User: Fold these one by one.
Assistant:
Number 1:
Amino acid sequence: IPSVSSIVPESCLLIVVGLLVGGLIKGVGEKPPILKSDIFFLFLLPPIILDAGYFLPLRQFTENLGTILIFAVVGTLWNAFFLGGLMYAVCQLGGPGLNHIGLLANLLFGSIISAVDPVAVLAVFEEIHINELLHILVFGESLLNDAVTVVLYHLFEEFANFEQVTIIDIILGFLSFFVVSLGGVLVGVIYGVIAAFTSRFTSHIRVIEPLFVFLYSYMAYLSAELFHLSGIMALIAAGVVMRPYVEANISHKSHTTIKYFLKMWSSVSETLIFIFLGVSTVAGHHYWNWTFVISTLFFCLIARVLGVLVLTWFINKFRIVKLTPKDQFIIAYGGLRGAIAFSLGYLLDYEHFGMRDMFLTAIITVIFFTVFVQGMTIRPLVDLLAVKKKQETKRSINEEIHTQFLDHLLTGIEDICGHYGHHHWKDKLNRFNKKYVKKCLIAGERSKEPQLIAFYHKMEMKQAIELVESGGIGKIPSAVSTVSIQNINPKTLPLDRVLPALSKDKEEEIRKILRTNLQKTRQRLRSYNRHTLVADPYEEAWNQMLLRRQKARQLEQKMNNYLTVPAHRLDSPTMSRARIGSDPLAYEPKEDSENLPIITIDPASPQSPESVDLMSEEPKGCSGLPPSPEEDEEGLVMRVKEPSSPGTDDVFTPGTSDSPSNQRMLRCLSDPGPRPEPEEGEPFIPKGQ
């Protein structure tokens, strides 16, 4: 019935089916089965978590890991203690039926009911097709808050047996959170590496390849649960670590088997969980207390909203892409509870928790409210608020190239700025992976294959399979057998269509040049720091040269003579200095040039900013007599600079002799020097002044 399934989520319909089945079983006088915690945690939950971890969108997950951890750890702790404290106050004020419930029991109840459930989130969010950011934030929180839930649950359960809780017990409980979470991740990583290493040697027996993936993942979950570590985090870590190496080693058929078997297995588990929830609701023992149940529901919603608003205000101070009010509403509204809370409540012991039935009733009420009310209304609210939906687009080679280019670019920018951020550590990890890990865990030539080429092969294979499934290759006559098809010699292409094939060595060389140069250019650069900048030794010299040039210009504006351009082709200032420095004898002296303004060139240091100096302040034309035509045609004379004595001005020093050793060259006074000036095209003294 499409009209019903478009309004009501699948999880709600399955719970309704469970309620009907449970009522039917009870109606005929039989006792309905109850969802036992062992069955749930050992057989129904692992397939769903493995499917989520193995196909986790790793890029979005790692880019938002900080936000997810804050929501998962701080948010869950806030929910548990806020809810537990308020429920303790309600129990103290709620009358004789609730007075006997202590603080530890309420905190235990708060830790059970506070965690967002990954099964319920997956069931609802997959149907509304929310955008990747919101999906990974809510789903990532539901996966990673398992460690907090496990620690708080076992902590308060143990504290309930103690006569007195000391400060040392609280400190040990705080440290156990790190042991449980990091221990679970470590167990998952170890089994993921073992699975990847095993898949390296399965090329001759492809049938058992999928089995190793399931076997090692389940072993990781059981090993973590055995030591009271986080089994969910172990499964996620195992799936994330093994996937890139396993997929490089196994065949395409094994990959397809793993993909569809995991999807089917998780779908079956999800269906059974929600049906059993409905059946257990009918079959279980319930104790209804209006005050306790309504307070639990109300405070759950208040704690979630307050937690999301406060944490998002803090997170947005550090995020580049801010979480908008619409995003905050969806995150708060998407905090669904599910079967994990029910199973943890079912695990409680009657001896220490006599109020277990009331706890279970309140938990089932919260689960039904979040799954039915919030799950059914979140789709119209997403449409009403115009929240961005997920866009189904196929990845292309172009997108992959630009993604890798931007990763390299951002890593280089971080290195130049001296900031060791997300991209820097990601790049370090990628280098370590390529240099050491891939060689150990991937067999054959695939270990040396660049990421772009591997992605291209994957896309090519996928496109070929889609082409075959759609029948796009063309119809082959049924009379021709597959053996005869293989024996047909393919037609050789015409010579003009044959593309020049690169050898393997040449390909590797090209790849190596491109990849290493793109990545290793930045290694030669030092981190920028304003405190360690080296002073420019020429900076003071440039300033002195500019001041002297201004003085020279002011002097020349008083002159009435005209500057003439030499008849031969002018060289650039740099070439002229180089030519004089290399062969000063090539320029013969002119006669009667002792009264002309002289520019000296120091051949020893043609690149020095002080290589151009005015020797004669006053030309002959400044004495009141008009300049003769010969002098006008002669222009300026250049001489080799003599070493200046200490204490004299090396800029405005008149020439002392006119010996043949003083070499001269016609030159314009508008020498721009080592750096081009803004007025480079203007002469010192425009003609006509």
Note: The chain is about 60% helix and 0% strand.
Number 2:
Amino acid sequence: VAATQPSTNWHLKENGRDHHTSKFSSKELIVRRGQAFIVTFNGTEQPEQNFTFIAETGPQPSKLAKTQATFGISSTVSKESWNAVLQSTSSNSVSISISSPPNAVIGRYKLSVQSTSSGSSSPATLGTFVLLFNPWSSGDDVFMPNKAECDEYVLEEFGIIFAGNKNHINSFGWNFGQFQGDILNICLSMLDRSLNYRQDPATDVSHRNDPKYLGRVLSAMVNANDDHGVLLGNWSGNYDGGKSPSSWTGSGEILQNWKKSGFKPVRYGQCWVFAAVLTTVLRCLGIPTRTITNFSSAHDADGNLRVDEFYDASGNHLDRTADSIWNFHVWNESWFSRSDLGPSYSGWQVLDATPQEESGGIYQCGPASRNAIKEGDVDLDYDCPFVFAEVNADCMYWNYDYATGKKTLIFSESTVIGQFISTKAVGRDDRVDVTNDYKYEEGSTKERDIFKKARKKLGLEDKFDPTAPTPQEIDQKPDISGKFKVAGPLEVGKDLNLILILANLQSDVKNVHVNMTAWSTVYTRRPVHEIWKDSISVTLSPKEEKQFPIKMAYTEYQQQLTTDNMIQVTALCHVEGGIQVLVQRDITLDNPAINIQVLGEAKVNKEVDVEVTFTNPIDMEVMGCVLQVEGNDLLRGILEIDIPPLKASETSSTKFKLIPFETGPKHLLVNFTCDKFADIKTFKMVNVID
């Protein structure tokens, strides 16, 4: 006979508080592994000593795979297994404290109880609960001893992502929103849609106790390649048929769109979008995670720790290799121990969901131990050579002649890649530089030794590479030097003024022919549209320096700009009787400012007015203006407001109401777009009081 269905009290409030899960807005119990939770149930007539509990997860629960546990009530608690301890009883109800081992499989469990004395009765289901990783518990692989770091890297729903280029770092806010609405369920269904789960569900679920495993699987699932994952990447500069990557302000909309569409990939993502979504998913599951921005980031496609760039005689940057140097690239670090590698490789691990190169036949990357990267231990799992190259590769710049197919080395650099590696500070909205955690100081002997060690481990030291420049080519010394200097504001809507400075390094006269180009690019430095070109012939007296002003009018570049607001300017100098000299600069233009004002005090469940103002800085009308607003605990979903066209120098003021529903510091994120300016972003901290 089946037992009557007991009614269960999951003590959501107390358990949520004890397990740092009260930010989830769920009616289901959500707890962390390796820690006790209380459950009370009634409708049972049996003496409690006779109870056996069953906790099971996945499609084929089994004791062997550790996806099923049966346990009775005991007075002693063993850390290694599931336990139940009697808390209290009354005439018709029993309160039990249940704890799971610190290495339990995470996910949704069914909890049942069977009374042994009633003979053949089948177990009665008490209901379901979700078990997560526990960075607050010292036995957990993801244990993080510093509480402020747990707050930031697991519980914080607001982030700051750094972008721009090494000369000009800018940043924008992001709403991770890991505790909102249905996000936890979407994260769990992401695991059930992975290739590993489709191939062998029982084995996949049995590995879900391991943050290394889940991090790797999720780095594949966040991109759409191979597995119909969450986001489709697009770096073309043309984003028809989807949302431009720079228009998103949070992960929630992306994850919800993925689910709503029946799990069709959301269009479109670029690196920071992949990284932000992976941050949301991992924080949601309880793995401490942050986003990292690497400036001048190498994409070494052929694994030789060298990035080759090609230019034609006119100075155009050619798109002829899979290698590239991105203005910036964003990836993730997650915190967990590496029992597979040993304690010195535990701590921060690099994961990267941006589909760049295949690993094990699919687009996934990591976890690569950050300590292994710093020490050049590129033979360790997973994908260390690729990550090592991102921050350490040498660069070779070549001139390519289409007519003959001949390439000539212009120059090489070993200190350019991997600069100003950045992440958000703990508990503050500031940038922290973590470059020294990835490598020894550029130019130091230790840094070169590590580079040689990595080359040796990859078998690059002993192998002849026909594509590499000769030592003679590398040692060539140029006769002149050149650089671009910025002379004026770098703002969308203003003319761009630069100065090309050329200096003769020799004590005889030099004749130089200079071919200059400017192209709009995506942030990966992929050229999209030519903006301008010019050529000049120059005679430089011995040791002379000359300056050549360059002006690109706003009207010249406005049509060609991508949403990244980036322009690459190049001057290829052909020196009579000497080697060519390449002068280049990547320029990021700032959008005009937008302002948020909260008019009055923000109180829980009380209306408060917010005003957003924008002044059109250019002398033509801007149209198609849309304001997009989001913010956890301040408003539900995303607010979209159409704004009428703005004449030259006109200011628009847009007011809307918020009704905050939680106290504490909250962040309001705003994105403003029109036909002349793409995705002007800002955020405002709003302190909500009772």
Note: Residues 376 and 453 are 6 Å apart (CA to CA).
Number 3:
Amino acid sequence: SASLDVLFLLDGSYSIGKGSFERSKHFAGKLCDALDIRPDRVRIGMIQFSSTPHLEFPLDLYLTKPEVKDRIKRTVFRGGSTDTGRALKYILRKGFPGGRNSSVPEVLIIISDGRSQGSTTMPAMQVKERHITVFAVGIKFPRWEELHVLASEPTEQHVLFAGDADDAANGLYSTLTSSVCSTTAPGCKVESHPCERRTLETVKELAGNYVCWKGSKQPNAVRASLCPFYRWKRVLIKHPSRCFRTVCPEPCDSQPCQNGGTCVPEGLDRYHCLCPVGYGADIHCAPKLSLECGVDLLFLMDSSAGVTLEGFLRYKAFLKRFLQAVMGQDSPMNVGVAQYDNDVRIPIEVGQHKDAFSFMKSIDALNFSGGGTLTGRALRYIARHGFRSTPVFADVQDDLPRVVVLLTDSKSQDPVAEAAKYARDQDLFLIAVGSSFVRAELAEVTGNPRQTIVYSDPQDLLNRIPELQRRICSVDNPEGCQAQSLDLAFAVDASAGVGPGNFLRLRDFVRSSRLHFSINRDVTQIALVVYGSKPHTVFALDTYTSNSALLQAIDQVPFLGDSASVGSALLHIYGDVMTVQKGARPGVNKVVVVLTNGGGMEDAAAPAQQLRDNGILVFVVVIGDAQRDTLLRVAGSPNYLVHISSYEDLQYYQDLIIERICEEAKSPVNLCKPNPCMNQGVCVLGPGSYRCECHGWEGPHCENRVLRGDSPRSVVLPPHSHVQRSSSGLQHFSRGPRHTKRH
């Protein structure tokens, strides 16, 4: 927690290779965990070097640990020769970029294989003469003697090996504790221990003596002789050494996990408990699980030939363990079981059993049937017949939330998307449990990846019981953007720079992103624009009102293949997509997500600023190498810029991007941004409402031209209001459900 400037110097040369470079980034992230990164404490910067040094980010740009670790992850491998000396001279000339000018201790952490193509002795000595503490971290199979030249004294405390990231991070922590911080955590002590340095060397080895021919003093004569033959071989050489580490009391020494739970330490002072089935609701495995939420719950169990008899018996065991864990005498839930193949049967009606013992006897009596896997048909049947209301009093209806948990491990032989939508439209809350083999289909069933539970092996299925309990009880608390009103437009680069193959990856990203939103007029509307040199609207905000319709339209998106112009795409979105005429709703947050390879950004800064000035967030997702300064001008802030190294990695950033969009959907809205008034009408804000001042036009949004001397008028609109016209021609405004009607 001392005030400290730490600069990473990462070897990005070809001798390291991309794989070892990724391990270097992982190690740098591990070191960040040992540091208290804050503006007044530890600051982090990074330079990547190969033939030339390249500043990745200065010390004053990212001032929190999550920001620094996220930026390190997004660092792209550059390649080139290994010129460590040149990188050190860059630091001697420029100092620590964005640093605090030696007013705080400076620490340089070099992560390299130590195979520089120039001399490092003199620049390394000059760096250390400036009182910069230098750590040399070996990666891959390093040249240890060069790393010892680079590191500060004593070298055994300043030379680390990134191959064991945890041990090396501990070593850095230990050295800083004794030098910069001068204190250890309570109960901890620094100790040395024997360790091993490894390197791969090329050695000459005698292969044997073979007959060879040599000349002689006599003319035209040679003589036979035995000559030694050598071969070159790469061998792994191990060098015994001593390392330093901080040893602390284990957080699990107090045995905090109850009911047979296993304690797993996390760092110096944290731990988590691996709980047995039925005890996962508490961090210490203390209480028994219970479904305290009142629901009507129906398990829809696949008993087709696709899951096999073994899989069916596994599902029965899962149901019994679930009931043991959550079903008590006072449980407010009603549970039933249905099974399906070609047909659907409901052997255990919802609410038929009130105690776990009789319920489990009924589960034991369930038989495997085999047959086809018609999941779509089963969902439709359950939507119609799965929940039969049996009210206690004739005039009191059972209004508990209705939850269906689908258990399947085989792909359906009939379409599921429309059937699942039909079930959800009947106010059924769908949760799907299955193996990773059917992950995509499960997401189609639930309409939301967060409501799918994927297991990796049979034992892992039983471990998912606590997660299933949380999902069931979240029925009234939608996650993500499911309950947030949002107008969302995707601008997808379809230029030749992206290429047809990568364009399909961008299209698939939009395709899967839609599942995180509730698509309808009242909640989320999505528009899609593809662009090359000119933009093309695939569909507007108000074109589609369901996920299934969006899916079909996204699959038809054309690849354009010419040059890219992000600016023209953003201008098009401002003037022809995010408008009241095209479905944009006043009083609803608006976001534009640009998916690009970074090309065609030169003309985009001004249109992006125009969108922001009108209350529309611009979120830039760039894949590949691009100029950060240009991207930042378009995004407006590092918070709205995601830089991804490859198209293959795009899928791993989806949760992060969706999370940030959802955060934006919760922010306050200016009802007059963007201007909801058409035909040069002026929007005037009132308390909780707005009105349009029209000139030569009339109507709530100045949409009707004034004819034959009618006087223009302005109308006060509360947000999300309904407009009706009475028989006398007067307009009446009433506050209605949010966004149920567009004017």
Note: Residues 390-397, 710-716, 718-743 have pLDDT under 50 and may be disordered.
Number 4:
Amino acid sequence: CSLALPSDRQLDERGREAAEAQRLRSARVQEQVRIRMMLRGQAPARPEDLADGIRGGQYSSTLRSSFSSRSQSNGVDPKASLYQPLAKKDFGTLRGSGWSSRSAVDLTPHKRMATISNGGLAKGRAYVAGYAASQAATASPRPSSFHERNFRCRQNLDTLSLRSLRLADRPLPLAEDRYAGSFGTMPAGGGGAFLGLGEHSSRAPSVRSLAESGHHLAEPRAMEMYNGHSTLLGHHAGGFDDIDLPSAVKYLIATDPNLQVLGAAYLQHKCYSDSSAKKQARSLQAMPKLVKLFNSPNQEVQRHATGAMRNLIYDNAENKLALVEENGIYELMRTLREPDDELRKNVTGILWNLSSSDNLKDRLARDTLEQLTDLVLVPLSGLGASGVIQQNPSEAEIFYNSTGFLRNLSSASQQTRQKMRECHGLVDSMIHYVNSSLEVGKSEDKSVENAVCVLRNLSYRLYDEMPPSSLQRLEGHRRNAGGTVTGELVGCFSPQSKKAREHYLNADIVTFTEVSKDPKGMEWLWNPQIVGIYNRLLQRCELNKHTTEAASGALQNITAGDRRWAGVLSRLALEQERILNPVLDRVRTADHHQLRSLTGLIRNLSRHARNKDEMSTKVVSHLIEKLPGSVGDKAPPADVIVNIIAVLNNLVVESPMAARDIVYFDGLRKLFFIKKRRDSSDNEKSSRAAASLLGNMWQYTKLHRDFKMKGYRKEDFLSL
């Protein structure tokens, strides 16, 4: 046999190929070492800086009226007091200072990123994941030279791409936690921001863009998940430097999905906080182009298009309207059916943004409620077949976004409230989620807060807006159309006789038993069981004051007015649920917003209470403590003062013990101070209320001696 040897030409070609391969391997390793050495000198990103980059709504000291929770005060024609615990207006997408990427990367189960003000929700919902470079084929490592180990790379950072870097696998940096009390692994602020190279997008960022961003160069965990864009990466290896808005908008209508991703990603990045860019994008017709990409056959295009839209509509009413006018709601609801959690997070975030515009709420309710309930609320609330809440972190955020959307809608018109009450499965989902969360000790959950606020808003003016057949069932034959007690006789007894009262009491029991059976839908809003749920929230929710405020506001709504059922539920709360003690516990430490709903609830309860003496011994001292007695005292808002005085008046007219306790706990001094203070319209209201109460107190002649000992005369009590 003979040995065949390669020709000289073949040897030359193979030698050149081997040399070229070795050169490329060496270049890759050198580039990686230089980058890592350069990054060792960078300061770590500060959590405060990262948190400042979050967009969206938050509880803040400046409350916005578009996101309110409503409560009724006592009286035949109660007026609404707007409770605005959440100024949640919009969602945006978290920027990377020098670059950005798709919105809504999967959150880790242990960290979330949120800003907080006044103990409220994060002001934003802005997700970042970085652009990840495509991974080059791995090469065998070689020892680095002394020069490489000890000297930094001096190459131009603008032109140095990350495309060929193979980054190690380690966790991405997150901003520090700002919330507590999440449900399961759910970020309590409704999600977080995943910083770093979280996704392989359409192109790699330049090293300069990363160095200037102030973040660590985080090694991506999921880089292999997003490949296939090597061609696009090869053409755009220098960052966003060579792209502008007109070019990005043109990319949206390109046939290449990679270019569509690039265009949408640039819009998301550029429109994070630049209002002029949002306006320019709208003028370039970016809105209809993005809407058409919501249901692209390419999933990455869908994600980037919805992420860009999320930023475009943030705090921009014109862009929100443009989205709706381009049939955007219909396309969003189609997209919501996709089995992709990242996409569903973006869609529900967009809906939450849109719902902050008052002029869009009725239309959103009309076009979204049924589908949102079927696709999100019922399955994720645990109302479905399982009966328990089973949410992964992404699903928890989807549910949180959806309940925030409902919370905004529920503060709109009567028409929208009624549509929400009638939407099959909506109220049931809210009730089931709150009840299940209480059972597993998750009362602090932020979605619980949203759900309770929805229930509070839907119970606003409930007896005036419920179906006539339901109202007639609750009211029975006791009242005529005007709401007053009828003059019919019970047998031979007058309506005011003891026998008549016993008859009415028995009728209450019969109605109570009937109504308590198997509530469905809106029936939950006035069902006796709901009182127990609100009571447990007041007792168990220690940290989230907005949840307890909403619970007391909902109780205030369903006990307001002179309707028969308002009295039934009031007495149920007092006598069966023993709700007075947890309410008074809240009063001791409540801020002004909480005091409005708490004192409004006590006002309703004091009107319907059977035993005024017993109630007086429990509440008078706590309420007197909240009243101002001199110019330097810290005074609650005027409506809180009016509520407190109304409670005292309701008790005084039937209980001498209430009048005695007012004197004992130094209430006279405070009431006379309030009576004399008439320097504003609000103070005028509280002054008149104090004058009325003092006039009623003078009717107890046994207390005149005590009054005189404190230096007060008849004229002081009876003068206006």
Note: The beta strands are 69-72, 80-83, 131-132, 199-200.
